């Protein structure tokens, strides 16, 4: 298919004039019928061959093309009497009210005209302001009962929906009476309005004369727009629009003959109104005030306006969004072995989707083989396109013939193959990371496979989620996707300037297990894990120590193999619970910049990560290294070594840590929450003390000894005091639990490294649940003066108001269980309400901002060129490419320079 | 009631500096951004700051705002009728 090289410069909207309608018409339609008895289109009928053809075999009488090629041509109907266009009924009313009934001028004085004209000029293209001014002019002109130009008296005009106008006239004696303005009279008045007054009415003299809003000629849309369908029984069913047009023409003919026969005015007016009804419903069958035109079966007809309106209408359903080819949708499942920028595509999908590849001397042999394989055998092809642009479908019987003919200038639509670029998307597409470009990996089975690290940007999980895949068809589209949309370009989130695609859960726990102090691995283990992670080091570094004749490598050494050779960074990680040790290390590094390795080793501490020239010297890697939102190490690699290096690092580090965690074995079970008897005793003691203190507070309150806090009532004071005591009790219980649960405990490892969960969750499992609350208050609702009948009315004690002293492990009492359910319910309601609210807010924001863009001069403008910001973000910085919101991180630049100068080694 | 108390909006710390641009400055601004005057953001003539400056519709106001990202940030608004 040869494309026409034309560019749309601008689009203009206007009202069709009768002359224009006649000019674009291919035929006048006068017969209210479609096909004759033989099923042949009637001349002058609604299926006239001059309007285009839909039946195969016939030729269009206007352009000579066959069905399918002929785009169709408009026809027209000459209306016997003018008809109001319902879509403009309101505008017509406004214009009638604003203009003089005698001379047609706008009812404003010359000074006012000049003033408003000036205002329009100043305003420019702001629609809102324009609409407001037009409304103001209308209001002013409407109230003027004497024309300022010709002095003729004016009458109010009443508009009766949908298309009737009354003039409330007065005769000489002052008696009021109503005069029905027929469309012809309306049209006469509109014709009188001079061009120069039109801009003030919001109309354009050349593109929208007011009298064109009253129809004298009705365009008949081409048959291609309203095709008839032949049912299996052989009966022809016409389109709704055709039905409506038949009605219009029939009544129009009746009206015409009645006028010619000189029928009484009453009959003519009845027919006129009937014609008005048909034209009105033809344009909009949901006009209020008139019954909708119905099909024989009682179903309302779908006429012009119904075709455009609503979600399934032409705009939202066919133009803003449409069904597309070269796309696929299926369930997703995880595959940690593929790269983050890959997507596993089922073989069945790969054989259905195609990429057009032009035949060149470089790929000739390859493509010939694809053609020979054909559509049934995997790396094959489904179609070829010859130099004339003909598409030829490949089938078992023509493979060899076509493969023989294949030559330069042909195009082969070959199956999707490994390495092809595709777009991958999950709804709701809330941000730009919801559609990213991936490389294809063709795989068996029937699901799309994706790396776990790209779940966060898509907000995907594998509980049955489905995703869509699209194949870009041109080289331009593929290049654009590759450059702008590939996954690695989106590792850093533009929202908070930290990694969005990052290690998670087991990657973090595994990283800790690998790099913590005392983690050593044998040669075979090291070789296995590096092979698994796809790290090619050639030769292993020297072993860190030899024990009983066995060479051992520390996890830190292995991890360092993944890092760029000149990377230097230090920071306190999540395990830092001894600020003094961190500080000494910090001071040492900052003073010397390139300190002695042995010196560092002496001070080395799990809580302080220090990487010097690509060697992990101190500390573990945890969420702060390559986790979501605060992965400093990953962040640094992206910024200083580029996205490709970051992708490689992320792929390797996730695989390496997965190997470590699977081979060491990592699980959490109920015995992770086991506490020794003395710890449980201590917790019981804490609870007893807290309850006692609460009781003392209540006692003090009852005796009136409680001092109210500033700005609080006595009751509020008591509540907040009790809450503080109970919160402290839970914290203390948590601390006790923490003391007995060390880093050998898997649940603690997960919480401390940031892999999953918080220490609070462990406290609740092992020690106690603590206070349940609704809206930040202790529970109080239920029965009169008590939450449950198990307590005395008015009991303010800890247990009666939702303080749960048991842990998940020890098990809750029935009352505690109920309190917990109360608190839990609030959480559920909150999430439900919050998602709905934030979704709506997001929609509103996007609707308001979607058309703004940053211009080449750095300004933010709307599509009409109105400036919103004189400099994007006030400083012109792209948050995704900035250093914590700054254009440059000066400290970092200094450190890098100094490192180079002082000999970072390599 | 007593006479309305004198209140200077610019004395308030949350109100940024406002200034009316001269004819020349206005032309430079329009040329710099290659815009028509109607493409500027607008401010109503009834805005307290505009009233205090005694600016008329058609004037352009320069607002010197404090910005968390850029230190100071200049914004321009066309005074329009209420």
Q: Using DSSP, what is the number of strands of chain A?
A: 30
How is the main sheet of chain B built? 4 strands, mixed
Span from first to last CA of chain B?
Answer: 28 Å
Q: What fraction, in percent, of the residue positions of chain B are helical?
A: 10-25%
What's the helix and strand layout?
The complex is a heterodimer of chains A (906) and B (82).
Chain A: H1 18-24, E1 75-84, H2 89-98, H3 110-123, H4 127-143, E2 157-160, E3 164-170, E4 176-181, H5 183-192, E5 214-220, E6 229-230, E7 236-237, H6 240-260, H7 265-283, H8 304-308, H9 314-319, E8 327-334, E9 342-346, H10 347-350, E10 354-358, H11 364-373, E11 381-385, E12 391-393, H12 399-405, E13 411-415, E14 421-425, E15 435-443, E16 448-450, H13 455-458, E17 466-470, H14 475-485, H15 506-515, E18 520-522, H16 523-533, E19 545-547, E20 550-554, H17 555-560, E21 569-572, H18 579-592, H19 597-603, E22 608-612, E23 615-618, H20 623-626, H21 632-641, H22 643-664, H23 677-702, H24 714-740, H25 746-753, H26 759-766, E24 770-771, E25 773-774, E26 777-778, E27 803-804, H27 814-849, E28 853-854, E29 860-861, E30 867-869, H28 890-901
Parallel strand pairs in A: 8-16, 9-15
Antiparallel strand pairs in A: 1-5, 2-3, 3-4, 6-7, 8-17, 9-16, 10-13, 11-12, 11-13, 14-15, 14-17, 18-20, 19-20, 21-22, 22-23, 24-27, 25-26, 28-29, 29-30
Helix pairs in contact in A: 2-4, 6-7, 11-12, 15-22, 16-22, 21-22, 23-24, 24-26
Chain B: E1 17-20, H1 23-33, E2 42-44, H2 48-53, E3 60-67, E4 71-80
Parallel strand pairs in B: 2-4
Antiparallel strand pairs in B: 1-3, 3-4
Task: Describe, in short, the structure shown.
The complex is a heterodimer of chains A (906) and B (82). Chain A is an alpha+beta fold and 906 residues long.
Describe the 3D structure.
- The complex is a heterodimer of chains A (906) and B (82).
- Chain A has 906 residues and is an alpha+beta fold.
- In chain A, the strands form ten sheets. In chain A, strands 8-16-9-15-14-17 form a six-stranded mixed β-barrel.
- The two termini of chain A are 58 Å apart.
- Chain B is an alpha+beta fold and 82 residues long.
- Chain B has a single domain (16-80), classed as Eukaryotic RPB6 RNA polymerase subunit, CATH 3.90.940.
- In chain B, 17% of the residues are buried.
- The interface between A and B is medium-sized, with 21 and 20 residues.
């Amino acid at each position: 298919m040869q494309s026409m090289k034309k560019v749309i410069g601008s689009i203009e909207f206007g009202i069709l004039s009768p002359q224009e309608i006649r000019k674009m018409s291919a035929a006048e339609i006068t017969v209210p019928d479609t096909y004759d008895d033989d099923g042949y289109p009637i001349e002058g009928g609604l299926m006239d061959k001059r309007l285009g053809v839909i039946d195969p075999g016939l030729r269009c009488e206007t352009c000579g093309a066959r069905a399918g090629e002929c785009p169709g041509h408009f026809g027209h109907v000459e209306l016997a009497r003018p008809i109001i266009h319902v879509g403009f009924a309101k505008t017509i009313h406004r214009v009638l009210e604003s203009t003089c009934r005698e001379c047609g001028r706008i009812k404003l004085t010359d000074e006012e005209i000049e003033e408003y004209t000036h205002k329009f000029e100043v305003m420019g293209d702001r629609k809102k302001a324009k609409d407001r001014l037009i409304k103001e002019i209308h209001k002013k002109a409407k109230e003027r009962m004497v024309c300022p130009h010709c002095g003729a008296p004016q009458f109010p005009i009443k508009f009766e929906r949908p298309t009737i106008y009354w003039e409330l006239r007065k005769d000489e004696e002052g008696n009021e009476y109503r005069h029905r303005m027929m469309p012809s009279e309306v049209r006469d008045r509109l014709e009188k309005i001079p061009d120069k007054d039109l801009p003030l009415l919001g109309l354009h003299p050349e593109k929208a004369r007011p009298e064109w809003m009253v129809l004298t000629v009705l365009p008949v849309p081409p048959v291609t727009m309203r095709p008839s369908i032949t049912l299996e029984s052989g009966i022809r069913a016409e389109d709704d629009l055709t039905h409506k047009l038949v009605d219009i023409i029939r009544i129009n003919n009746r009206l015409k003959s009645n006028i010619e026969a000189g029928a009484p005015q009453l009959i003519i007016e009845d027919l006129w109104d009937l014609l008005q009804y048909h034209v009105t419903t033809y344009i909009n069958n949901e006009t209020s005030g008139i019954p909708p035109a119905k099909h024989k079966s009682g179903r309302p007809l779908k006429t012009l306006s119904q075709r455009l309106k609503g979600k399934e209408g032409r705009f939202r359903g066919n133009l803003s969004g449409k069904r597309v080819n070269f796309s696929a949708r299926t369930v997703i499942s995880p595959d940690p072995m593929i790269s983050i920028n890959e997507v596993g595509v089922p073989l069945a999908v790969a054989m259905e989707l195609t990429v057009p590849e032009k035949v060149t001397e470089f790929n000739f042999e390859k493509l010939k083989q694809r053609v020979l394989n054909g559509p049934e055998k995997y790396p094959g092809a489904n179609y070829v396109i010859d130099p004339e642009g003909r598409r030829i479908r490949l089938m078992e019987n023509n493979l060899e013939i076509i493969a023989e003919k294949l030559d330069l200038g042909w195009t082969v639509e070959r199956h999707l193959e490994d390495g092809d670029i595709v777009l991958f998307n999950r709804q709701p597409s809330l941000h730009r990371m919801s559609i990213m470009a991936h490389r294809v990996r063709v795989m068996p089975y029937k699901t799309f496979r994706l790396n776990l690290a790209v779940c966060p940007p898509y907000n995907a999980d594998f509980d049955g989620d489905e995703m869509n895949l699209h194949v870009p068809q041109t080289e331009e589209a593929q290049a654009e996707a590759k450059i702008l949309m590939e996954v690695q370009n989106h590792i850093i989130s533009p929202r908070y300037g930290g990694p969005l695609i990052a290690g998670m859960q087991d990657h973090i726990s595994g990283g800790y297990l690998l790099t913590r102090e005392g983690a050593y691995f044998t040669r075979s283990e090291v070789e296995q894990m590096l092979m698994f992670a796809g790290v090619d080091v050639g030769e292993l570094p020297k072993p860190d120590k030899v024990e009983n004749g066995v060479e051992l490598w520390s996890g830190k050494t292995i991890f360092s193999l993944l890092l760029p050779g000149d990377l230097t960074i230090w920071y306190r990680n999540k395990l830092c619970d001894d600020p003094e040790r961190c500080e000494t290390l910090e001071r040492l590094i900052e003073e010397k910049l390139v300190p002695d390795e042995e010196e560092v080793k002496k001070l080395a501490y799990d809580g302080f990560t220090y990487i010097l020239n690509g060697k992990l010297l101190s500390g573990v890697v945890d969420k702060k290294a390559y986790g979501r939102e605060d992965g400093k190490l990953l962040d640094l690699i992206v910024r200083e070594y580029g996205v490709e290096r970051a992708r490689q690092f992320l792929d390797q580090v996730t695989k390496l840590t997965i190997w470590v965690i699977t081979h060491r074995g990592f699980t959490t079970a109920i015995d992770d929450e086991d506490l020794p008897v003395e710890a449980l005793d201590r917790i019981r003691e804490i609870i007893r003390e807290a309850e006692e203190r609460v009781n003392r507070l209540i006692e003090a309150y009852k005796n009136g000894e409680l001092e109210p806090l500033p700005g609080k009532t006595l009751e509020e004071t008591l509540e907040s005091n009790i809450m503080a005591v109970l919160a402290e009790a839970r914290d203390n219980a948590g601390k006790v639990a923490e003391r007995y649960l060390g880093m050998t405990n898997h649940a603690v490892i997960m919480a401390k490294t940031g892999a999953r969960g918080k220490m609070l969750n462990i406290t609740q499992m092992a020690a106690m649940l603590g206070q349940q609350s609704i809206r930040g208050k202790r529970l109080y609702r239920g029965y009169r003066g008590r939450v449950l009948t198990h307590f005395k009315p008015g009991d303010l004690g800890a247990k009666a108001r939702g303080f749960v002293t048991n842990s998940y492990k020890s098990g809750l009492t029935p009352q505690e269980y109920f309190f917990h359910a109360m608190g839990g319910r609030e959480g559920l309601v909150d999430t439900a309400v919050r998602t709905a609210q934030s979704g709506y807010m997001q929609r509103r924001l996007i609707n308001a901002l979607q058309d703004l863009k940053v211009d080449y001069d750095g300004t933010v403008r709307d599509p009409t060129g109105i400036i919103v910001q004189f400099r994007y973000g006030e400083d012109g910085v792209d948050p995704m490419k900035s250093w914590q919101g700054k254009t440059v991180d000066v400290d970092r630049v200094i450190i890098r320079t100094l490192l180079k100068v002082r000999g970072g080694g390599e | 009631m007593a006479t309305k108390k004198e209140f200077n909006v610019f004395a308030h710390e949350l109100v940024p500096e406002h200034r009316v641009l001269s004819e020349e400055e206005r032309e430079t601004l329009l040329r710099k951004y290659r815009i028509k005057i109607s493409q500027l953001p607008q401010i109503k003539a009834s805005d307290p700051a505009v009233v205090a400056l005694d600016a008329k519709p058609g004037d352009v106001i320069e607002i010197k705002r404090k910005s968390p990202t850029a230190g100071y940030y200049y914004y321009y608004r066309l005074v329009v009728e209420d």
